[in-house]
Automatic annotation (TrEMBL):
Main location: periplasm
MF terms (GO), sorted A to Z: carbohydrate binding
NCBIfam families: dctP (TIGR00787), TRAP_S1 (NF037995)
Cell location: Periplasm
Protein name listed in UniProt: DctP family TRAP transporter solute-binding subunit
Source organism (scientific name): Paracoccus aestuariivivens
GO cellular component: a single term: outer membrane-bounded periplasmic space
Signal sequence extent: 1-25
Superkingdom as given in the UniProt entry: Bacteria
C-alpha cells in the first residue's frame, strides 16, 4: 500500500472514530495506539490491555494505551508498515510477515525448531531473543516482548495421524509459504496453499483431507466439525512480537522508555497464561463435539524428515549458528 495513502487513511480513520478517542487522548499526556489483527477478547488483545492499565497506573495517568483489535487499523502487513513509519505507535504481530525482512525470524519459523512451548519461551526470553530484537531494531521497531502464537498441529477428516507414513499421499491446506509446502513434501503429503476462509468447505467437499493450526483456531473456525482427527505433533511453535515504533519510542523520556519496557516484559507471562487457558477451553470444546485427539506420538521421525527443509533454508553460517544455539538451549 502507498504509504502516503496509508497515512491519510489512518489519520482520517482516527478522526472519524469520534468522541471516544478524543476523550481518551485528552485524559493522557501520552497516548499510544496499539494494533492487533486478532478479535476483541483474544489473549494478545487482553494482554496489551493489561499493559495499558499497568502503564497508566504506574505513570499516574500520564501514559495511556488504546488497543485496536480485529484489524481496525489495517491488516497485519499494513499495520507493521504503519508502525515502522510511526503512524501507529505499537503493533502485535506474528513472525510470518517479518520472514523476508528480519532473517532471524525465518529460522524460528522452521518446522520442529522448538521442542515445546517451554523451549520456545526459554529461547525467546534469553540472548537469542535479544539477538532477534536487534534485527527488528534495524527496521525501526523496538521489541517490548515475545508473545505465544501457539503450536500448529495436523488435523484431517480421514484417520488419526500417528506416524509419518500416515501422511503419505494426503492433501493438506497450508499457509502460502514455501517452507510449509516443502515441509509437507518432506513428510510425503501434498500441500495445497489456499486462503484460510476456504478450508472448511474444501475439507467438507473432499478437495483437501485436512489442514494444520493451533487448537483455538481448530475450534473457533469450526474445522473440528469436518475434520475430527487432530494430532498434537506441534510442528510449528510460532513466537509473536509486541513492538513499539522507534519514532514513538524516541518521543518518550528515558524514564518512560524504561517503564514501557518493564511493563511490556511483564505482559508476556500474562499473555502466555491467557493463551494456555484458551487452549484448554478449546480442547475441551472440540472433544465434547466429537474430535479425537492423538497425543504422545514419537516426534523424532517427523523431525528427521525435515533434513531437506533445513538444508534448503539454513544455508548460511549465521543461520546454522543460530539453529545450533536454539537446539542447545535447555
Amino acid at each position: 500500500m502507498n504509504m502516503k495513502l496509508t497515512r491519510t487513511l489512518l489519520i482520517c480513520g482516527t478522526i472519524l472514530a469520534g468522541g471516544a478517542s478524543a476523550a481518551f487522548a485528552a485524559d493522557c499526556e501520552v497516548q499510544l495506539r496499539s494494533a492487533d489483527t486478532h478479535p476483541d477478547g483474544y489473549p494478545t488483545v487482553e494482554a496489551v490491555r493489561w499493559l495499558g492499565t499497568q502503564l497508566k497506573e504506574r505513570s499516574q495517568g500520564r501514559i495511556c494505551v488504546e488497543v485496536f483489535p480485529a484489524s481496525a487499523l489495517g491488516e497485519e502487513k499494513d499495520a507493521i508498515e504503519q508502525t515502522q513509519f510511526g503512524v501507529i505507535d505499537m503493533v502485535r504481530a506474528s513472525f510470518g510477515p517479518f520472514n523476508n525482512l528480519v532473517p532471524e525470524t525465518q529460522i524460528v519459523s522452521l518446522p520442529y525448531i522448538f521442542r515445546s512451548a517451554d523451549h520456545m519461551h526459554k529461547v525467546m526470553d534469553g540472548p537469542i531473543g535479544d539477538q532477534i530484537a536487534e534485527g527488528f531494531a534495524k527496521h525501526d521497531l523496538v521489541v517490548l516482548g515475545y508473545y505465544d502464537g501457539g503450536a500448529r498441529s495436523f488435523y484431517n477428516s480421514q484417520k488419526p495421524i500417528k506416524e509419518v507414513a500416515d501422511l503419505k499421499g494426503m492433501k493438506f491446506r497450508v499457509m502460502q509459504s514455501d517452507v510449509f509446502v516443502d515441509m509437507m513434501s518432506a513428510l510425503g503429503a501434498n500441500a495445497t496453499p489456499m486462503p484460510y476462509g476456504e478450508v472448511y468447505s474444501s475439507i467438507q467437499t473432499g478437495v483437501i483431507d485436512g489442514a494444520e493450526n493451533n487448537q483455538p483456531s481448530y475450534d473457533t473456525s469450526g474445522h473440528a466439525e469436518v475434520a475430527k482427527y487432530y494430532t498434537l505433533d506441534e510442528h510449528l511453535i510460532m513466537p509473536e512480537v509486541l513492538a513499539v515504533s522507534k519514532l514513538s519510542w524516541e518521543k518518550l523520556s528515558p524514564e518512560d522508555q524504561a517503564l514501557l519496557k518493564e511493563v511490556g516484559q511483564e505482559s508476556v507471562p500474562v499473555m502466555r497464561d491467557l493463551w494456555n487457558k484458551k487452549v484448554a477451553e478449546s480442547e475441551a470444546a472440540v472433544v465434547k463435539a466429537g474430535a479425537e485427539i492423538t497425543r504422545d506420538i514419537d516426534k523424532q521421525p517427523f523431525i528427521d524428515a525435515m533434513a531437506p527443509v533445513y538444508e534448503k533454508y539454513v544455508a548460511t553460517p549465521e543461520a546454522k549458528d543460530l539453529v545450533a544455539k536454539i537446539q542447545a538451549t535447555e
